[in-house]
Amino acid sequence: MNRLVQVAGIIDADEAALLCAEGVDWLGFPLRLPSGKDDISEEDATKIVSGLESPRAGVLISYLTDADEVSEFCTQLGVTAVQLHGDVADDQLRKLKSDRPDLYVLKSLVVREDNAEELLALVDAVADSVDMFITDTYNPATGGKGATGLTHDWEVSAELVRRSPKPLMMAGGLNPDNVAEAIRQVRPAAVDAHTGLEGPDGRKDVAKVRKFVSESRRAFAQLG
Ligand SMILES: O=C(O)c1ccccc1NCC(=O)[C@H](O)[C@H](O)COP(=O)(O)O
Fold it and tell me: Are the CB atoms for 6 and 146 separated by under 8 Å?
């Protein structure tokens, strides 16, 4: 999996259709969030996922930490990839990978001011049990770990890319205006954005999505 563009936080079928039409590869569905405020129902997400044509794919974004629960939820939704945002124990990651070799597992690395060493150690510890890592940015003001719209120190992301034997998707405050420079500096395998592509109404803005996709493709191509 290389040079993917993912957009997270799908609200409904119209938004999913817009993203597919603009050439987004993976669509992320944050569900069963700890806040209890999901943007879409599980039923609607399932319907959208079932209508996606390969190579487009739906990705469950989840704070679940139990391998069996994750596996069952993925089956329910019909997704073939899951992005784990919670503090999943190493043994649960191993179990998920061994029980569900068909599932593409992404593990988040949430960058804070002072946790680079911790994240590098996590990469070393769990790389064998995941298919890809995804960075994100912690918001100290709210405690938020995802969809914060904040960038982090890209030198940390670049160090994680160099350290990881598995591909890394870059996320955290990316938008149409900074994604090309992020790709140039960090050299990730994939990029993801959520809030940076929204308009004032909280829905994905077609012009922002179009520019995010084209800037990402251009910058990936320039990596050679
Ligand atoms: O997207 C969400 O709503 C979300 C909520 C809670 C945890 C993770 C979440 N999404 C994960 C993603 O892949 C987001 O796109 C990522 O956090 C980047 O968001 P942003 O900084 O707004 O681009």
Answer: no
Residue whose entry in the numeric block shows the structure tokens 């003001």: 141
Give the range of the structural domain holding residue 109, as residue numbers without chain letter.
Answer: 4-223
* pLDDT on residue 104: 97
Q: Which residues pair with 107 in a beta bridge?
A: 84, 133
pLDDT tens-place string over residues 116-129:
999 999 999 999 99
Which value does ipTM take for this structure?
0.95
Q: How many angstroms is it from 172 CA to the middle of ligand 1? A: 7
Q: Can you give the CATH number for the domain in which 208 is found?
A: 3.20.20.70
**Residues 169, 4 contacting (CB under 8 angstroms):** yes
Q: How far is the CA of 120 from the CAs of 86, 96, 109, in angstroms? A: 17, 22, 9
Instruction: Give the chain's domain count.
Output: 1
* Ligand 1 closest atom vs CA 7: 15
- To test the ligand 1 pocket, which listed residue (136, 175, 179) has its Cβ within 8 A of the most ligand atoms? 136
Residue with tokens 């890592």: 133
Residues 6+ apart with CB under 8 A from 133: 106, 107, 108, 109, 123, 127, 160, 164, 166, 167, 168, 169
Distance 129 CA to ligand 1 centre (A): 22
| Tens-digit pLDDT profile for residues 39-75 | 999 999 999 999 999 999 999 999 999 999 999 999 9
Could you give the CA distance from residue 113 to residue 101 in angstroms, rounded to a whole number?
Answer: 34
